[in-house]
Specification:
The structure holds two protein chains of two kinds.
Chain A lengths: L1 H29 E5 L1 H7 L8 E7 L5 E3 L2 E8 L2 E7 L14 E8 L4 E10 L3 H6 L3 E4 L2
Parallel strand pairs in A: 1-2, 5-7
Antiparallel strand pairs in A: 2-4, 2-6, 3-4, 4-5, 6-7
Chain B lengths: L1 H28 L2 H30 L6 H6 L6 H6 L5 H22 L6 H24 L5 E4 L8 E2 L15 H16 L1 H13 L5 H32 L9 H26 L3 H22 L7 H6 L2 H22 L16 H33 L2 E4 L1 H21 L10 H24 L5 H32 L3 H11 L1 H22 L4 E7 L4 E4 L2 E12 L3 E12 L2 E6 L2 E5 L4 E5 L1 E4 L3 E10 L6 E9 L2 H18 L3 H22 L1
The chains are: A alpha+beta, B alpha+beta.
Chain lengths: 139, 676
């Protein structure tokens, strides 16, 4: 009885220990800090070399395509961030002027952000047009 | 029509409350007429939920843009098919679909079990109605699809009804046939798992802890599991053909949300077999089904709201708090029931040895739960880290891959080994005899791959395990057929078919595993993906692997729904022109959104996947992104195989058909005698 329990615990223990190891190393590899542009500026030196995620809006008219590289400015509360996208997949279809975008990559000492990934969400035109004047009525 | 819908929702809500109370208290106090009224109220819930559903369909079809939901998800020029599909295009409509499906399933069970009306069934229906109350509460008061638009001209004045000239249109990414069936299929799975949960809770309440609840719900569990899996696969396939980044799975919170209950559901389907065979793992099984139920509701919540991306978004919609409270209450309720019934849940047996069928199931369960936990952790970590430390840390695909690839491989290994192990304990001799061919196949596959130049560890392991499992499954079929031929003297094909038909559960299960092997092969193919990027003008060409793509022409055009740019690319392989591909870039007018229509040429060996990313500024060249993705098609073939296998396990056995016929006769007699 004692030996059997020991065997099972050992078997389960080995499996769980291996999984914890994978989880920790995967976590180190996959983690990224999610910051606003303001927070990014406040980070100072510590921002360099970390994997970062930054959200903001694509500044109107700032998108420039040079072959597969795309550079643009990300804007939030009137603070701008220069971004260079060098990722392997094409920028998403929703990426355009005024779109809400989340970029992931590294911040360089020259003040530009090198993004490897972009997610973009269209600013919804409907909310903009009627949003302020909208009130729900329930019958 | 909106008033009609609102009224229907209010009535369905009231009836669901009455039904829940009548079913619980009527049963407890033994008053049959109260229970009967509870059943009738349950049918009324279905009736009024159907009325509300029809009302929303009519509003969508008529493009009544005074209705906020209609204005938000459709527009005039949208094809009728998509106008109706917009029913589940947004949160409010999908929650109504949830309610309707739940009411439908409850009514089906109530009707089928109408002759029994035992405490057990009554309580189970009570639990389902309790869940209905929650969803109808959301439908009526929190996320009402019949809300109308109005403009408040001044502070303090009441709002004036407002009807925009056109709606915002359905997100173009959702204008795809697969995206139309994906949500309802997924929802059938989510809602379906309410049934086994309800019966498990009813079993705890009545303290009838035998296997009755498992017998009644076996098909519901299997079907729900199947629909959930099919929904996930459809979503993956949609992402692959529609999103245009060359992949099918990104560990997105929404994807994770549907995967989690599928993982616990898979664990549940396996561990109930141990309970049926050996009367073990009872506490485990009720806990698993509770977890699956909670994850289904949690999944519904995540798929339709943006909580996970940020805590701030969470605060925006109050619906999150309703879900949290309901989830909390149900979790406490089920935990209470399980803990107070522990003595009825005692295992009648214990695990004998490490090398046995039971323990392979045990390990299967542990790693499936570990996978679920890892996915949950990774999905919720950004939200939790922001709530606790004030700093949001996100976890990307590397985390999910790193932990789930080894788990997947271990599961694949168990899939191959379990059928070779006997219940209780396996003798060393039978182990050696049965193991030799599959192990040899695995080793041969691994050596062949290494000779062919494959140097990464996981792909070699994965293909070796695929070969191992494949040979196990084939030899199971072969040994069974051979034994049948010896015993009955049937011909091979006859023996083979009879073998499967006589034991659909077992061999259907193997077919499901076969599908899983194919899917793993498909997943592993992604280790060998290649991609290239080209900027070309008409007449120019580029190559990827052994394909040469020549740009024939780039043309423009439009229809009322969207404008498009279309490239025609001739594909040359082995020196001759094989076929043409037509990737498109579209711009949808109503939603002002651009999308890419990917062109894919699938073969059993690999997919050629071409995306038209757009034109470079000022009449520059066309920007084309091309991918060669090996073995992807096996994921979908595996999915169909899995579906076929599930169907086999669900179909009744000949013995069962006879039993049911007899049961129906008895019921008819009972009904006749009741009338007298």
């Amino acid at each position: 009885m004692g030996r059997k329990t020991l065997r099972f615990s050992l078997g389960i223990g080995v499996v769980i220990a291996a999984l914890i190891f994978f989880a920790i190393s995967g976590f180190q590899e996959g983690k990224a800090y999610y910051k606003t542009i303001e927070e990014l500026n406040a980070m100072g030196e510590s921002a360099y070399g970390k994997r970062l995620k930054v959200a903001g809006y694509v500044e109107d008219g700032s998108i420039e395509r040079h072959g597969r590289e795309v550079s643009f400015k990300l804007q939030q509360d009137d603070i701008l961030l220069a971004v260079r996208y060098t990722g392997s997949s094409p920028v998403p279809d929703t990426f355009k002027d005024g779109a809400e975008a989340v970029i992931e990559g590294k911040y360089h000492e020259d003040g530009t952000f090198e993004a490897k990934k972009i997610q973009a969400k269209c600013a919804s035109k409907y909310e903009k047009e009627y949003g302020a004047a909208r009130a729900k009525t329930q019958s | 029509m909106a008033n009609f819908g609102n009224l229907s929702l209010a009535l369905a809500f009231s009836f669901s409350i009455y039904s829940t109370i009548a079913l619980f208290f009527g049963t407890q106090s033994g008053r049959r007429e109260v229970v009967k009224s509870g059943y009738n109220a349950l049918y009324a819930v279905l009736f009024f939920a159907t009325c509300a559903t029809v009302a929303l369909i009519v509003l969508l079809a008529r493009s009544d843009f005074n209705i906020e939901y209609v204005a938000n998800y459709t527009n005039r020029d949208l094809p009728m098919f998509y106008k109706l599909a917009a029913f589940w295009g947004g949160q409010k409509g999908s929650l109504l679909l949830w309610t309707w499906l739940l009411a439908l399933f409850s009514a089906i069970i109530a009707y089928r079990q109408r002759h029994l009306r035992g405490d057990f069934i009554n309580y189970a229906l009570g639990i389902m109605m309790l869940t209905s109350i929650f969803f109808l509460l959301l439908n009526k008061f929190v996320a009402n699809p019949f809300d109308t638009l109005g403009i408040q001209h001044q502070e303090g004045l009441s709002a004036v009804p407002f009807t925009p000239r056109d709606g915002r249109g359905l997100n173009p990414l959702l204008q795809h046939p697969e995206m139309v069936i994906h949500p309802p299929v997924l929802y059938v799975g989510f809602v379906g798992f309410v049934v086994p949960f309800a019966f498990a809770m009813a079993a705890l309440m009545t303290k009838e802890m035998g296997n009755a609840w498992l017998k009644i719900t076996r098909r519901w569990s299997l079907a729900s599991w199947f629909f959930l899996g099919a929904g996930i696969l459809l979503g993956a396939n949609w992402a692959y053909v529609e999103l245009g980044w060359g992949g099918y799975w990104a560990w997105d919170p929404v994807e994770n949300a549907s995967l989690m209950p599928w993982l616990t559901g898979t664990a549940f389907l396996h561990s109930v077999i141990v309970q049926e065979r050996r009367n073990m793992l009872k506490v485990w099984n009720v806990s698993l089904i509770s977890a699956t139920y909670l994850l289904c509701i949690f999944g519904t919540f995540i798929t339709r709201s943006g909580i996970v991306s940020s805590v701030h978004a969470f605060a925006k919609s109050s619906i999150g708090y309703y879900f949290l409270v309901f989830l909390g209450l149900m979790a406490i309720g089920s935990a209470y029931l399980i803990l107070t019934r522990l003595k009825y849940l005692k295992s009648e047996n214990e695990l004998d040895t490490l090398v046995s069928r039971e323990s392979s199931f045990l390990f299967n369960n542990i790693v499936l739960l570990a996978a679920c936990f890892a996915v949950l952790w990774g999905t919720m970590f950004p939200t939790l880290s922001e709530a606790i430390r004030g700093e949001q840390i996100t976890i990307g695909p590397p985390f999910f891959n790193k932990i789930n690839i080894p788990i997947g491989l271990f599961l694949l290994f168990l899939t191959g080994i379990a059928p070779l192990l006997a219940w209780r304990k396996t003798s060393g001799r039978s182990l050696r005899k049965n193991f030799l061919p599959p192990v040899a196949a695995g080793i041969i596959a691994a050596v062949a791959l290494i000779i062919a130049g494959v140097r990464s560890v996981y792909p070699v392991m994965s293909f070796a395990l695929c070969a191992f499992v494949l040979v196990t499954i084939v030899s199971e079929f072969y040994r069974g057929t051979a034994a049948r031929i010896r015993a009955t003297g049937e011909q091979f094909i006859e023996a083979f078919t009879n073998l499967i038909l006589r034991n659909k559960r077992r061999y259907g299960g193997y077919v499901v595993h076969l599908g899983v092997v194919m899917m793993f092969a498909g997943f592993t193919g992604s280790a060998f993906n290649t991609e290239t990027h080209a900027e070309i003008r008409e007449g120019e060409q580029f190559t990827i692997k052994d394909y040469t793509l020549v740009c024939r022409k780039v043309e423009e055009g439009e229809n009322p729904n969207f404008a498009y740019l279309r490239a025609t690319l001739d594909v040359i392989k082995n020196g001759k022109q094989a076929y043409s591909l037509h990737p498109e870039k579209r711009y949808y007018f109503a939603s002002e959104q651009a999308t890419s229509e990917v062109a894919i040429k699938s073969t059993l060996k690999e997919d050629l996947y071409v995306v038209f990313s757009g034109m470079d500024e000022n009449g520059g060249p066309a920007v084309i992104q091309a991918y060669v993705n090996p073995l992807v098609v096996w994921i979908w073939i595996g999915g169909f195989t899995l579906a076929f296998g599930t169907l086999l396990t669900v179909l009744p056995d000949a013995r069962e058909v006879r039993f049911n016929r007899r049961k129906r006769e008895l019921e008819r007699m009972l009904e006749a005698s009741e009338k007298i």
